[in-house]
Predict the structure.
Amino acid sequence: MIMQTTLTDSVEEAAAILNSGGVVAFPTETVYGLGAGICHPEALLRLFRAKGRPADNPLIVHLSSVGQVAEVASSLSLQAEQLIARFFPGPLTLVLKKNPSVPYTVTAGLESVGVRCPANPVAREFLRLACCPVAAPSANRSGLPSATSWEAVMEDLDGKIDCLLRGKPSAIGLESTIVDCSGKRPLLLRAGAITLEQLRAVVPEITTVAVTVQEKRPKCPGLKYPHYAPKATIRLCTAAGNIDGNLSPAAYIGLLEPPQSMKLLKVCRSLEEYGQELFSFFRLCDASGIEVIYCELPSDDGLGRAIRDRLMRAAGLC
Ligand code: AMP
Ligand code: MG
């Protein structure tokens, strides 16, 4: 069904649409989110449909303040409390035992719930005006690169959602770090801008899990689906590696200058810039008819871990 998508700069207008049962995309510091109030069952179903998201992939619940955590989660471990004290608000999602107020549509039937409190001031104001916590996956069609600008949200979801709250491009550009604190040992489920090293400085016992596409019941259900993939083929490389940009319309993104000339080229000055630019570069490549995107694979530490993870998934390697 095609609907009119209201494009607005007004947080009040966007919140009013959400509060009347609408599905509203909004800016955050990680990527744009696609929100529905957890108190609006119909809106939650429409959200899954708009994204083309499988029903067994749970949604992260977004809160305007740390004080709201108790509204959606129960019995926090000491480690969860320490991570909240250090990293909320910010680009960290914690998986916690859910409280009965959170519907199973949001958690995909799980007894746990992903909880995040964004730091972006526009997101915080939008969530403050919302009449209940807001379930929000990334505001892209399932499987495609996440949207890091309002234009990218429109590209994927115009005519499928009620409203887009227009904001600046996402400062981080990669989805939140996810730590599961609902079991005995805290587990890093998804790497993000809050690095494993930063997390371990607060909770040293955090471990990592290897999740593969083949796994039937992965700890983080969303990770079993293909992700972040542009239409172009992704080739992972080191800049000195065997790149042949002349064979087909090719592009390159990385930290080091590639030896060959490319139709599209993005040399980033830092890992932060690499993370910020990655998904918008993928989208630009698709719009420009690029067939192969060479991506430099950074080392597996700090922010490099999150960028590697997105690249490997985009390349279909995990
Ligand atoms: P997205 O919002 O599109 O960035 O995806 C959210 C990710 O969080 C998906 O990979 C979900 O599987 C994961 N997630 C959300 N809630 C939970 C939960 N209760 N337990 C484990 N993973 C979760
Ligand atoms: Mg997503």
User: Anything to note?
Assistant: The chain is about 30% helix and 20% strand.
